[in-house]
Amino acid sequence: MQTLSDEQSLSHYGRDWTRFWPARPSKVVFPETVDEVVELVRQARADGQALVPSGGRTGLSGGAVAAHGEVVVSMERMRKLIEVDEFEPSICVQAGMTVGAVQTAAAEHGLFYPVDWAAAASSQVGGSIATNAGGIRVLRYGMTREWVRGLKVVTGTGELLELNRGLIKNNTGMDLRQLMIGSEGTLGIIVEATLGLLPTPPEASVLLLGFSGLDALMPALAELRQGLSLSAFEFFDRRCIDHVEAALGRGFPLDADACPYYAVVEFEDPGQQNQEAALARFEALMEAGHVLDGTLSQSGAQAEELWAWREAISESIAPRTPYKNDLSVRISRVPAFLEALDALVRERYPDFEVLWFGHIGDGNLHMNVLRPEDWSTEDFHAAGRELSPAVFELVQRYEGSVSAEHGVGLLKRDDLHWSRSETEIELMRAIKRQFDPDGILNPGKVLPG
């Protein structure tokens, strides 16, 4: 098992996409087999050495940060394809395989893994399960949790658990597999996963729509659902466009100044047989005054071009070290919640640039406050933390979640009480003690001290 401890490797493997904490692991190890992971955990337990499981490190909550001398356990060399079962259908892979590689392997067998997001090419299966990743098609296919058929996990005691073994039906008591999904590496290190697949879906087309205001979003979603089979409804505000234009080096296909909000809407369109239905829905929304502008893809290439205006947002604003809040409320409450939240942020920090985008079809909003270029990262993070309690109080008032899909990690560890009761938190602590009695797995993450 290779070990690295040079400064560049420690910095690279010791953090995720957040930049608010220093990367200070003691070393990075690269297991290649399940047995090596088992031995690594057992030795770490004997030595009292903390471990931080590491996948593609595309997380946005500090869940993969090693800031206190932990050993980073990189899974990137455990990326074997074990089996594709075309009858179930399912795919079994080691945890270090990227989600994009899973999608490619499935496609080679005429199958489809539906969970997808912009970082799928670099994020790994183990990390996506540990964070219960969502992405752009939750509206149609749900979260990662819906697709995990089986797991192999090494607990904090060095025991290897084989959970559910890929079964579709298994009614033999508590499903420990579900505890591992979304636990962010605090209960065990995922080493292998069996994921459900689907037949290849029909071709899809994309509408890019410009909306008159927040109050138009829910009527538009309802109207489009009446005549089309939607797989995604992704919105972004006008301010996002400037950043994506600069990143992509091309102009927005609509009049960017015509509308305050835009959405990418994907729908099933085999052989483009639903184009007329889509245009009819578009015209109805125009007549109602909900939609002011729009365009419809005429090919797969055009659909990808339209998708880029939503998928490129996160990467385009990354240099500004945004302070992110990944929030959710019930779908019907999104417009009122977003309006109240936008007013709150602008009142507290009128000089900050705030961008909104997200998965409007499943109630998930991403609030991104961009760091002014003359502010240090530390001062900006502190300002964000000062704002968060008011934001989370509003989330609680709307009975929502302070983390819809990014997880808790370090970023929201101390804010968990806004969405979970003290009884729930204590039960989670008790579960942690059962799987990791010495607290060596990703310590300090998810659960407040």
From TrEMBL:
Pfam families (alphabetical): FAD-oxidase_C, FAD_binding_4
InterPro entries according to UniProt: FAD-bd_oxidored_4_C, FAD-bd_PCMH, FAD-bd_PCMH-like_sf, FAD-bd_PCMH_sub2, FAD-linked_Oxase-like_C, FAD-oxidored/transferase_4, Oxid_FAD_bind_N, Vanillyl_alc_oxidase_C-sub2
Cofactor: FAD
Sorted UniProt keywords: FAD, Flavoprotein, Oxidoreductase
Coiled coil (residue ranges): none
Entry's Gene Ontology molecular function annotations: FAD binding; oxidoreductase activity
Family assignment from sequence similarity: Belongs to the FAD-binding oxidoreductase/transferase type 4 family.
PANTHER family: D-2-HYDROXYGLUTARATE DEHYDROGENASE, MITOCHONDRIAL (PTHR43716)
Protein name per UniProt: FAD linked oxidase, C-terminal domain protein
Organism encoding this protein: Wenzhouxiangella marina
Organism lineage string: Bacteria, Pseudomonadati, Pseudomonadota, Gammaproteobacteria, Chromatiales
